Amino acid sequence: MPVSLLWAVDVYGRVYSLSTAGQQWEQCRDAQMEFKRVTAAQQCCWGIACDNNIYLNVHASDLPVRYQEETYENQRWNPVDGFSDRLLPSDRWQLSDVTGLQHQPLDNFRLPSSSWEWEGDWYVDENFEGEPTEKEGWSYAIDFPATYTKDKKWNSCVRRRRWLRYRRYKAMDTWAKIPSQQTTLPDPFSDISCGGWEINEEPRGRLSLWAVSLQGKVWFREGIYHHNPEGSLWEEVPLPGEVVQISCGPGDLVWAVLWEGQLIVREGIGRDCPKGTSWAMVDSPSPDVGATHVAVGVNVVWALTKDNKVWFRRGVNSHNPCGSGWISMVGEMIMINVGLNDQVLAIGSEDRAVYFRQGVTSSELSGKTWKVISVPRDGDRSHSSASAHSLQSAGCYFCGEVRAHCIITSSSPESFVDAPTEHSDQPIETPKSRIPKVTSDSFISELVSDRGPGKTSREVRSAGPAVLEEETIPLEGEVKAPDVGVSLSPSQSVGPLDPQWSNVDLEEAQGQQAQTGAVVDTADTSSLSSVATFTLAMEDPYGVDEHPMWAWVSGGGCSVDSHTQLNWFNSMVQSVQSMSLSVTPAQTAAWRKQIFEQLSERTKREMDNFRHYEQAIEQSVWVKKGTMQWWRDWKPHKWIDVHFALEQFSGPEGNKDGILFIYYNFYEEKKYLHAFVNEVTILVPVLNDSKHSFAIYTPERTKQRWPIRLSAATELEMHDWLALLSVSCCDSRGIQGPPSKQAIWSITCKGDIFVSEPSLSLEAMPYPTPCDQMFWRQVGGHLRVVECNSIGIVWGIGYDHTAWVYTGGYGGGFFQGLASSTDNIYTQVDVKNVYIYENQRWNPVTGYTNRGLPTDRYMWSDASGLHECTKTNMKPPSPHWTWVSDWTIDYSVSGGTDKEGWQYAADFPASYHGHKTMKDFVRRRRWARKCKLTTTGPWQEVPPIPLSDVTILPCAAQSSVDVVPLWAISNKGDVLCRLGVTALTPAGSSWLHVGTDQPFKSISIGAASQVWAIARDGSAFYRGSVSSQSPAGDCWYHIPSPSKQKLKQVSVGRTSVYTVDENGNLWYRQGVTPSYPQGSSWEHISNNVRKVSAGPLDQVWIIADKVQGSHSLSCGTVCHRLGVQPLEPKGQSWDYGIGGGWDHITVRGNSMEPPRVHLPSLTERTPLPVRNTEINSSAVGC
Questions:
Q1: Are 887 and 925 a contacting pair, CB within 8 Å?
Q2: pLDDT over 50 at 480, yes or no
Q3: pLDDT score, position 411
Q4: Which DSSP symbol is given to 108?
Q5: Which residue positions does the secretion signal occupy (predicted)?
């Protein structure tokens, strides 16, 4: 995860940032004044300073912010002058925009603000539509406007050329003032919030900026995107009342707080209307106490009330931005903020510390506990390093009738205040200190807005007595700002002109008496008011044992999730970290010289001495070798030590290819086995508890069902080889980047994800691409089910029923570097159960015991009974998995159990039931233990409902569907319809529950919104009246199952419906028409089928069992149905592809129409070249 920043403002108005990889607050040294509050995004940070102006801090990056200004020079031909600037009165301007309607002379272009600079002068664009032009960039046409060409013709009467000039945003990593609006200026701002970057990807870097003025108005900043980070103008948003604070999330959530304590929610926000259309009212969490603060994220809303209580809003999402109810949370805060990934930060009401909400995940949005962020600031120093000459004092006085003058003594002569000293020898009582405080809902902006023009320090000193006589002390519990007051910035001394103003108000606090050198003449000590002073250290305002006091925090640019390792909570801060290191210029020069000498010596040692060698990059062949073990092809099969080599070379045209070599000994004779890289169709990890092995398939090896299986010494070595071989295979085939929208997705029985890019001829008739020649590459992550469609929406379900949505990246897992994308890769966690069975047999003496017959299965075994599996020797599926629970009895076994988890039968194996009868002589019960896998991949979790099946509408290639229907089944059997699923928001917004009479287990949606589902009892259902206007339909129609069969899975294509029963039979639904979508009857197609997938072209792919190869029998093989066409939708035969070990496949994204092949003769037909096929019978040879 990239490093990002958390922003905060302390009570003195200083801005700090904390990196996710850092351990201390870094102060923004370039801030020239104090700030009230900030709001951050990943690319920038906005703030309100004490002058009530908006400032922007754009983070520096390798990609500069450049904007292209352009104008067109237009000319017309006349017989006297030729082409000249003399245009007809009806013509466009001589210098205009591309339409010719706006006059744009070169001198009229101005920089938007001082934050921009011109990169150069105006120049002519000498390219026209990607081709160079002749004669100074002119393009010609018959008239304005018309089609322009770069060549001059005899009828070319007009011409134009484009002038370009670039301006660059130069105020990177510094606070730049946003220029004031030229029209009616809004009143000063008091609150600001940015977000909305997830609403629309175009234009790049788009943001929504909302602001609140002192009069309670709300303003929206238009035109903020990457090339215009400052935006263009402010637009006022109508309100139902006066607003005090506003919060904008990354998506379409915007909440605000009214003066009366109610909350309002912005509705209608979308990509075409980022500022929304209307407001909806939401009551305060507490009926007696109004709200003071609100913070929103993607799917969360947090609020604070006037008693500093924290509240969480449940049920909030894009479909329901108002939520459903409030939940009271633990803690008392004065300010709260929601950052990226819905992470929550707050400022405590008592200690003014920044708190981080731990345990916030997509499935538990409210988190678990508050934890204080305890890291030092970069300006913190130990007590010993603070010296008297480095501290200066600034006094703030609040008094009623003070006729005397004060003197502030200091070691610096510039800090003296001119005043009489005749009573300086009288002892005084040292006043109590005052602590600055900034409330979360308002600041004393009157300190700035109501004061007069700035005065010099001498004018302030001379006016001091008069000012003091007019001031009064506010009563307890009340805060009042003086008419005129002076508060110096902690980073400045008293001496400079135009002292900076602080955005703090003062509240009397109990504390130790401050030791000060000020001498005050108290002529009237009986007055209600008294003189109070406090000492501000200009460089270190806090004492040794005092922690920073914060006023505002913003996590909008801080990317943190539940798996991020943070160093923010280290309470044991070493004193060495807080010490300031003094480095003299002489030491710096010496170090620089020493480093330069070391680099020069290294260059001579590593480069100069080898200049006579040829450059390695110029060689076109390179070889990587290693030692491995190979599962040999001949009997007896066993692992033998071999030398493995990959020789890769570049062709004359830059194309890459390679050869794999396996060198082994055969009866003391050295031999080798080889395979061309461009013939490798897939690389499959085959992990178990004893070997780190992987399999290499080629078309010939696929036919044999016998791959090249190699084993590395360590897991890391295996991953290195897999990544290298995968990149080599992709290079040889010219495949790179993420999978296409038409890709075919599949999953192995171990949860590994593979994709294949289909060719145009894959579904062609009569000569389709052979299925065993398809190239599959691995994608990071771990899933049990995956479904897709042709506009790029891909959903997956893990073994723990967690729903995941594809983010558009590639790689992840063990893929690194060029084999993986740098963004859109996230941590993925999957949990699965490992099962073993305890078996017992009954005898007349002891009853049921673990003493079986000699022919019985193991008393502790797997489901088949062929392998012994005990609690002690059973290990996780692979080294990637770790146990997360103990062994427990599993009562959720098909057929039911008794109260102890036992199932009974007449013998092993047989049909088990959950109650004992007189004929039951054996019994078993299943034990389960959970294990967890943590990996990475281009997947993001879709909370919070666990799913067991999902289906997406298989759109056509030229589909214009905006909202894509997506249906799913929860792990409890509930049918759900996902709302808001689009190509831009594939995760959708919310779930809509569809009522059923019984739990379901499989669902599929086809063209024309045909929704079919399978209940857990094996019966089929059809959902009627499903449409875009009624996405959930109206009722279920029961469809009779095939005779004596229980269905388990269904897949619906364009016009066809296929199902698989529990016995592995594949069925086709006959008679399905638009007028009668339920169909008429079932027709048997094949057996030994595990899964079926019907695509948008009615293509049919299955996962078949018991596929016989020339060397072995494989289970879990990808098969393609051949001969599918409108007049023969059931197809003719099967073509066998990759396998075994596959568990799931989906072709619902492949909507590419195959090319039509015309046979040379209708009378002479060539036999269909199908390999390993069977016509309308078993998908395999049993």
A1: no
A2: no
A3: 37
A4: G
A5: none
